[in-house]
Amino acid sequence: MINPNVSQPHNQEVEKTKMKARSFIKKIIIISQSTSLIVGKLQSADIDKMGATNYPACKLTVFKPKRYSIGNTFQFNMEDQGIYFVNKPEMIMTLDEISDKYPEIFREIHINVGKGVWDGA
Fold first, then answer.
1. What is the pLDDT of residues 52-78, one digit of tens each?
2. Which residues make Cβ contacts (< 8 Å) with residue 3, sequence separation at least 6?
3. Which domains are assigned to the chain?
């Protein structure tokens, strides 16, 4: 049941998020979460309902995601494939967008790209 006191993301925002994400399919993306960044190769972007709620969100399927803390440190490798829900286009970033904001993570991602970490997706 939808709680009327909780604001829902607008479908337009979710649609914009999906369109932005689809332009990055098969590319390395960064998903900005409140305390961490998820880095991986985007495999698909669709609109789906998040969990048991009726809230629409953009569902991203990411190949070999890696989690970094906002403090620029690597935390851990995740599963071979991860599913993440986002509802704002600003939550999806490219390598160019993080180069100034998180230079240490940017350098580490480039090292991993050179090693072929995300090849095969």
1. 777 889 999 999 999 998 876 778 788
2. none
3. 11-115 (2.30.30.100)
